[in-house]
Amino acid sequence: MKAPGSEKMDELEVRRRLLTDPYRLSAEQQEQLKQDPDSQQFHQDILQLDQQIRQLLSPPVPNTLEHSLLLQQHKYKQQQQKRFYQHLVALAASVAFLAGFALNWSFFLYGSQSLGENSLAHVYHEEPYMQQRMTALSLADVNLKLADFDAQLSASDYNVVFANYCNFRGSRSLHLVLDTEQGLMTVFVVPKENSLSFEAEFHDDKYQGRSIATHKAILVMVSDKAETLQRGEQQVLNSLQFKA
């Protein structure tokens, strides 16, 4: 005969085990559930509550989530590719600039064999900066540089907007840019002792030039207009004097 309260303890023990693990029931537990409808209902309530907790902890994935993730991934890849190509273009531009710069200077120093070729190379090199150098220089500053070539410039109808030394295949020369009424004209004062072959006239698709040999130096004049070259040449010969 069972002791008073032992049946109740059995029921409590069953429920305690159900709370501990409602999914793995021993044969003895299953038999007890069959005999106790209240315990069966308690077991069902425990299973239902566990399912609700699982749903709360693991919400369903929206149908559009996968599409959104794929779209974001695609946009990210596009941005990465865009940045990569931008860096690549910038790098290519830098390499092209350096290559062009090196080629340009190597042409000045080694590539050009004639006076005309070398003069045109210098004109093209300075061309992008000419519009920023349209301020007239003082006659004293220009003559200070011309003095190295035993030359002097008198007052004239044109302004000198650029005057600087340059290298003609190892010969220290003077690069002048004149602002005449007909337009810009470049004048080079090149020592007669230079390694370049003399050219009285030369031209390319844009510029034309003339070279005049004096007893002290060679004057090379370059312009993109025939009228500027013709009138400017006479103006230079009238205003630029070399020492005897």
TrEMBL record:
The keyword Transmembrane helix applies. This is DUF3379 family protein. The keyword Transmembrane applies. The chain crosses the membrane at residues 84-110. Keywords: Membrane, Transmembrane, Transmembrane helix.
